[in-house]
Design goal:
Elements (H helix, E strand, L loop, with lengths): L3 H16 L5 E2 L13 E15 L6 E16 L5 H14 L3 E3 L2 E3 L3 E7 L4 E14 L1
Parallel strand pairs: 1-2
Antiparallel strand pairs: 2-3, 3-7, 4-5, 5-7, 6-7
Length: about 140
């Protein structure tokens, strides 16, 4: 049953394995240097809430963490939206509706536009909801 650290690590691993180096990935809280003009992803693990749940009988009590694994897509400005949305679709194909470990599941992700940023990037966020049960 995954702990918070195991949950974060497994979500990073799922993305990394499926992404296969298509662009660099900046992992949450790890140093990363942007390359001007080169698209990249950045991740952020956000557990929202933890609650007690009962599965079946009262003998099977668990702590369920619900959260989102945000993947920010950054592409150079003034190159159209095609690259960013193509990367978003690729992320959804990798991350959506997965059973990663026993009791760690992702749901359908949502894509939202962050917009044109002053530092030269066009950004989208792919929010991948997850549930993780720790007994």
């Amino acid at each position: 049953m995954p702990t918070l650290l195991e949950t974060a690590s497994e979500l990073d691993r799922l993305l990394s394995d499926g992404w296969a180096g298509a662009t660099p990935i900046a992992v949450d809280n790890v140093p990363f240097k942007e390359v001007p003009g080169q698209s990249y992803l950045s991740t952020k693990f956000i557990p929202y809430t933890t609650e007690n749940v009962v599965i079946g009988s009262n003998m099977c009590k668990r702590k369920r963490t619900i959260g989102v694994f945000n993947i920010r897509i950054r592409t150079p400005l003034e190159q159209g939206i095609g690259k960013a949305y193509s990367l978003a679709n690729d992320i959804q194909n990798i991350m959506d509706n997965q059973c990663i470990l026993p009791n760690l599941f992702t749901l359908a992700s949502s894509i939202r536009r962050v917009g044109d940023e002053e530092d030269g990037w066009y950004s989208l966020i792919c929010g991948v909801p997850f549930t993780s049960d720790d007994t």
